[in-house]
Please model this.
Amino acid sequence: MKLRAFALALALAVATTLPASAVTFRFAFQGDLKSLDPYSLNETFTHGMLGNVYEGLTKRDKDLKIIPGLATSWEQVEPTRWRFHLRKGVKFQNGEDFTADDVVFSAERSFKPASDIKTRIQPAGTKAMKVDDYTVDFVLPSPNPILPYEWDTWYILSKKWAEANGSVEPQPQAGQQQSYAALHANGTGPFIITEHQAGVKTVFKPNPNWWGKPEHNFDEVIFTTISNDATRVAALLSGDVDYADPIPLQDVERVNASANAHVLQGPELRTIFLGFDQYRDELKYSNVKGKNPFKDVRVRKAFYLAIDENAIVDKVMRKAAVASALMISPLLFPLAKDFTRPATDPAEAKKLLTEAGYPNGFEVTMDCPNDRYVNDEAICQAVTAMLARVGIKINLLAQPKAKYFAKILVSGGYDTSFYLLGWTPGSFDSWNILANMYRCRDEKGAGGNNNVGNYCNPKVEELTKEVLVEADTAKRDKMIEEAYKIGQEQDWGYIPLHQQALAWGASKKMKIVQRADNQILFYWFRKE
Amino acid sequence: MLAFIIRRLLQAIVVMLTVALIAFTLFRFVGDPVNQMVGIETSAEERAQLRQDLGLNDPVVFQFVRFIGNAARLNFGSSYQFKTPVIDLIADRLPATLELAFVSALFSLLVGIPMGVYTALHQRSILSNVFLAASLIGISLPTFLIGILLIFLFPVTLHILPSFGRGDVVHIGFWSTGLLTASGLKALVLPAVTLGLFQMTLIMRLVRGEMLEVLRTDYIKFARARGLSDRAVNFGHALKNTLVPVMTIAGLQLGSIIAFALITESVFQWPGMGLLFLRAVQNVDIPIMSAYLLLVALIFVIINLTVDLLYAVVDPRIRIDARTA
Model:
């Protein structure tokens, strides 16, 4: 008996003094976690990281389906009034109760001038109203059937905490004052940030009072930025980190050949595509003077047919990409299977160019980033070579993203004739694509703000407006399909290339959930 | 002497202003910071407003004068990326860079000098030839390649030493040090060797050359004729006289070790100033870039000033020059 008690005491002592089983998950990403304020930068990585700490009214599950988050259920009381029932008994990490006041506060905060997520609650003019402590109504000026689609990354902040710490407004981008919320976090989510050194490392500890049931088995999570590709891969191979993202395509085989790590590849939602300036009367960067060849649908189609996307997928992307017929990932649009890419046909392309009046082709400058997407510059080089076969001479201008975006986007006055760009619809819905890419815009960018080449068709414009308010899903999908049919198969407005693949490197000890939107939500990860 | 110092200081101010001006002109060509600060869906009006708020629409001369005015008061503004005062960020990263620089300088001296002495004394031995051949690698291979090779050899293949970062650090006041923890010391080895390798070979070759020179001089012959031991001649007389130019070079090199640590820092994800600067360039974070460049210019100015003053102390000819000028 005595012996048993002694053994028990010994076991207890060992258990308490030696937390040898403490599981630490270390991971590395190429970019920095710049701010802990979830309203200050609308960017996938930031949203994903903060999604481990903060929560929205809705969440998205492992397959991106919308599931209840801080709201347990919601309904449309009428087309312009949505009612959200909030989860009871939820506490912020500083111990405050989560109530309707926090939701109303967070809605208002998202509209503030310094917020980078102003479009989360659409349309503009929507009001959040407290019904009781656990019910909030959203009153819309016009119907929006996809109101909560982006709310998984509209995180709810504590009103009292923000007010007490001078963080009622997100930190202004140009501000000189340091915002408390940029360096501290107080969410309702599964993890608490215990240490944050911007640009160096961030330490997370599990939230013992989280309302959900944890799937992870971590006692501590340490995030480090490793911007150098070779170092990141080395850190994974040497076991210094359990997870590294992204793995460059040329290192995938090497990682897979190693004893302790492997690469998880899966489709990503971003579509890489080419666009044309279809707006200016004369191209800014071309030897064709007095007219714009890209205004001619035959020229656009010829470009499309001349580019061998399968070769790009095979050779440039090393098969880590899926050729796309649409500007949206097939994972996000149920009728995408009705669309196929026409086969590459240089002869037909040549014929179309001749018909359009360019039997000997022409010269045009192509803008391309060289540090933004997977192998972006190499894709542009392949396109250059393929177009040369039909007589088009491309002068390739590949630049770092800082220069590239400044030139081709609205801030640079859409200063391009032919460009490569990638796009992920933030709402995971086609309306985002139509509104950003297919809607006409004026010179200042009003309308389709990211429609760089200003593709414009009144019929598509009309459909875009209808899609925004149509509540019947089947009917809505049909409208979207029609818009895509016109935009792609009739007008050849863009050349969608592919969805690149995610390449996450993980230790073989890890169980990883890879979501197609590339958010790193480690509350689903486990380490054996 | 005082006039000499004042003149030097005035020159230093001119240098700093020139660096600031050149840096400022270059920033115009790095790209648009606004695009790096907001998400892609941010509207044109908001971007325009932000440009206005940041003062990017003002004439460059205005921006420059404003920058110099603020810099003189040690106010470098807030980082565009981190929304944190730049001075805090640099203060946070400075210890990492300085520690790395001093350790690698120490490494290059402690290894370089004995190797130089050895190769000078035993010119024909096999080991000397090995040292000299190896030093060619140090001189000719670029730093980042050496770093990657070391990472591949030690952490990845042999599974010793960490591949990145600084390990655990201990905070003493405002200073964070990795020298007091086992993981911090381990993390220091590879970056310090990478950074110090070039200096080490430089010092080794310098010591060898100087030593060969000195060994031929008359006073060494006399020392030998006096029947002094080899040890006393080689180390007591020859090495001592060799070290003067070595110390000058090592001192001047310290500045470049600090300034050019950025490549080593990027390879090893060493959280120092260089890495901060490199990331700032990628993200067009102008406040960090300008502050860093000024700081590096300041370090060089201080080192050069110190060396100049020491010369003046050591070499009377310079003092006489200064007096007549």
Q: What stands out?
A: The mean pLDDT of chain B is 86.
